[in-house]
Amino acid sequence: MDIDARGPRFGAAVTTVVLAVTLITGSVWLLAWQTLAFALGAAGGVARSPYGWIFKKAVRPRLGPPTEFEPPQPPRFAQTVGLAFAVVALIGWTVGPQWLGSAATGCALAAAFLNAAFGYCLGCEMYLFVRRVTVRAE
Question: How far apart are the first and last CA of the chain?
């Protein structure tokens, strides 16, 4: 079943803020929270992530009916990519090197910002690319 396309974009906006504050403050706990949010989104889909839940309960009821839907697989894959970057960032910030944590956080922030501001989901595009390549290879 397709999902309301505004949900993942809302999640990307919240993620953008969380990751920006993480970079500004250097808070490993905030990064750990975002890593958990990515993990839940990757495991159960964006609708089951904390930001998806907030969108469903608090934001969507205040909006008009959705006009654009998308399949859930690309955003779920994007959550998995975000999770990978967040794990690398956590390793960099806790074990070192510090620059690795900052760089990985910055990459995840850039991807989230692109989705939030422009509706361009890098992880979703990666998913579609991988699907095209693997279908041709079979």
Answer: 26
- What is the Cα–Cα distance from 65 to 5, expressed in whole angstroms? 11
SS3 45: coil
Helices (H), the chain: 6-25, 28-44, 50-54, 73-94, 98-118, 122-137
The 8-class DSSP code of residue 59 comes to: I
What residues pair up with 3 in beta bridges, in sequence order? 70
Query: Rounded to 5 degrees, what angle do the CA atoms 53, 6, 32 make?
Result: 45
Beta bridge mates, 4: 69
Check if the beta carbon of residue 118 is closer than 8 Å to that of residue 69.
no
pLDDT tens-digit series, residues 1-31:
899 999 999 999 999 999 999 999 999 999 9
pLDDT digits (tens, 9 = 90+) for 45-62: 999 999 999 999 999 999
Between 134 and 12, whose confidence is greater?
12
Q: How far apart are CA 98 and CA 38, in angstroms?
A: 21
Residue 51 and residue 59: Cα distance in Å, rounded? 10
